[in-house]
Amino acid sequence: MMLTSTKLSALFAAKHDKPQQPKYPYDATLVLIALALMSIGVIIVTSASMPVADRLHGNPFHFAIRHGIYIVGAILAAIAVLQLPMQFWRVTNPYLLFAAIGLLLAVLLIGRTVNGSTRWLALGPITIQAAEPAKLFFFAYLAGYLVRRYEEVTENLKGFIKPLGVFFLLALLLLLQPDLGTVVVMFATTIGLLFLAGARLWQFFALVFVGLMAVVALIVFEEYRLKRVTSFLDPWADPFGAGYQLTQSLMAYGRGNWFGQGLGNSLQKLEFLPEAHTDFVMAILAEELGFVGVLAVLGLILWMVIKALHIGNHALERGRAFDGFLSYSIGIWFSFQTAVNIGASAGILPTKGLTLPLVSYGGSSLIIMSIAVAILLRIDFELRVDGVQALNRGEKRKAKASVSSAAGSNAPGTNKSAGANTSSQAASNSSNAKAKPEDEGKAGIKAILARVAEEADND
After folding, report:
1. Which helix (H) or strand (E) holds 7?
2. 355 near 275, Cβ under 8 Å?
3. Where are the extended beta strands (E) located within 126-241?
4. CA distance 160 to 191
5. Which residues does residue 121 pair with via DSSP β-bridges, in sequence order?
6. What's the whole-model pTM score?
């Protein structure tokens, strides 16, 4: 009877007696942050796009409806990617790099030109900005390369330069569009990831220096880029020419003050500020919701970046190097693209055509950013599942050990004399023979009730 009760108690403890485990198999906070940014994006894009949508399409909600469709597509794409194990990305990242190169080449050959830039692939009613998936695919390849060639990257110059050669090829294809903003974001993410991977400091600083020199050269030798820089340095010198967009954006920030003019009360969106619902959506948000609204959006994006870096650090601690590097790259990507978008609209950086993650209007950017968030959720999910499985295996081993020790203590041979051994074994056998199923059930229920009472006392 005692042995049966011990076995049931041990089995119950193995099943229910566990340290605190995650309440959800995924990071619910990360999901809520992404949904909050999307919701803010829907509201601000609707407000900012109504005047231009009414003039161009006769429907003030034209861009708002399209943005809503993009969000639905982004959520569906994120759910689909969430089903893919990280092993898929580990295996296919070299092929994804070829896909990125193919997309950029296809843009140059059959792409659609808008405002002097050839950045879009038209597939029937669907328009794809090839640079967006190219960024994600390149970061996946870079994470895989750092895993495969970690010693080369950290110990010699050859391994350090190889991924830079791949980046140079992608940068060349992007500059032919031209799209310097994406090149800058990819370059910043690359050097950040190489630094976190353990590249030598002299290599890191040399790469930063060469990259800055290259960006300066690209600006100096292109007249329109040079005009952007000069207008950024003094936008009021030509407020109705090169500095027009930035001066209108600064007016929007100035009118916003602390709490804004109120939702829908922006004046700059009345077609004074070009691209109000895309690249300069933060200026309209600042005008309508004020400094508090801007701070809330920045806080949400910062929270997401910290989550990404935390997931990456946890993955590296658990021996998942690819997952960790990919999480790091997504965090750096989000943070730097946010800094460039808001810096350009606030006059801190030269004007660049980059979207605000999960907020700005644009289907390609919204879908790819949502997929990146889904990848973070998948990495976190696999880390949690691995932890629970390891914990369950450890608990089962402990339960088996306790059961075996209990059985050993009641087994023959524990008494000192042979006669005592015989009598103890006979008593044990007779008690087991007399034990009924009802008694075993009662003993198990008593053990369960005792455990529940103990948990209630602890609470």
Report:
1. helix 2-16
2. no
3. 126-129
4. 10
5. 128
6. 0.77
Q: At what angle do helices 86-110 and 363-410 cross, to 10 degrees?
A: 170
Amino acid at 15: K
- Residue 115 is predicted with a pLDDT of 66
Q: Which of 283-297, 359-373, 418-432 has the lowest mean pLDDT?
A: 418-432
- As a whole number of angstroms, the distance between CA 64 and CA 51 comes to 12
Q: According to the model, what pLDDT value does residue 305 have?
A: 94
Give the whole-angstrom CA distance, residue 140 versus residue 327: 10
pLDDT of residue 430: 45
Tally the residues of the chain: 459
Helix (H, G, I), strand (E, B) or coil at 42: helix
Measured CA to CA, the distance from residue 162 to residue 92 in angstroms comes to 19
| Location of structure tokens 């949502």 | 370
The neighbouring-strand residues paired with 128 are 121
Q: Answer yes or no: is pLDDT of 309 > 50.
A: yes
Distance (Å, whole) CA 268 – CA 252: 6
pLDDT number for residue 427: 44
Looking at residue 413, its pLDDT comes to 45
